[in-house]
Amino acid sequence: MDSELMHSIVGSYHKPPERVFVPSFTQNEPSQNCHPANLEVTSPKILHSPNSQALILALKTLQEKIHRLELERTQAEDNLNILSREAAQYKKALENETNERNLAHQELIKQKKEKQLEYTKRMVLNVEREKNMILEQQAQLQREKEQDQMKLYAKLEKLDVLEKECFRLTTTQKTAEDKIKHLEEKLKEEEHQRKLFQDKASELQTGLEISKIIMSSVSNLKHSKEKKKSSKVCI
């Protein structure tokens, strides 16, 4: 009997109660946000049941819980609305910040591109300047090389002239040396002939002197004989 009464009044989550007993509340209990329900007054038998006071307390506690849940639901809905508005505001602020960041990033990229372009222009100008300097240096080196080649050709020509002159002088010197050698040989021959002549002359002079001596001796001997012969005649 108690279980049937409990089910008829309280019911369950899956099966609502067959009837609800609504107790009387004091004036101090809150009544706002309470939704009316189809209430069915129970019979006096149920009110005078041994468990009626417990049931009344349970129903009162249940109504308080329902009322508190309604308040919490309302508060939750308010909080959800606030959160939705804050989320929308945050989303808008985030979108604005993102747009500002994108604009700043684009501006930074633009500045970087401009700086890169300016740096590239300077690099191109420097490369062109260095290229012109290198070309000028190469042209200067080519001119100096041509001048050096001309000087070298002039020196080679001068050297050729000097070699020809040296050859001519060498030939002249050889001819002179040959002439000198011929003259020296001729002088030697003449000296030899002169010496031979002197030797012959000396020999002839010696022969003449010997002849003179012989002739003088012969003359003296002849004179001595004649003198002796004259002496003998006088005696």
From TrEMBL:
InterPro entries: Centrosomal_MT-associated (IPR051756), Cep57_CLD (IPR025913)
PANTHER family the record matches: CENTROSOMAL PROTEIN CEP57L1 (PTHR19336:SF10), UNCHARACTERIZED DUF1167 (PTHR19336)
Superkingdom of the source species: Eukaryota
Keywords carried by this UniProt record: Coiled coil
Record has Signal as a keyword: no
Organism annotation: Homo sapiens (Human)
Protein known as: Centrosomal protein 57 like 1
Domain Cep57 centrosome localisation: 114-215
Pfam families (UniProt xref): Cep57_CLD
UniProt keyword annotation of Kinase present: no
Coiled-coil regions listed in the entry: 52-147, 173-200
An annotated Gene Ontology molecular function: gamma-tubulin binding
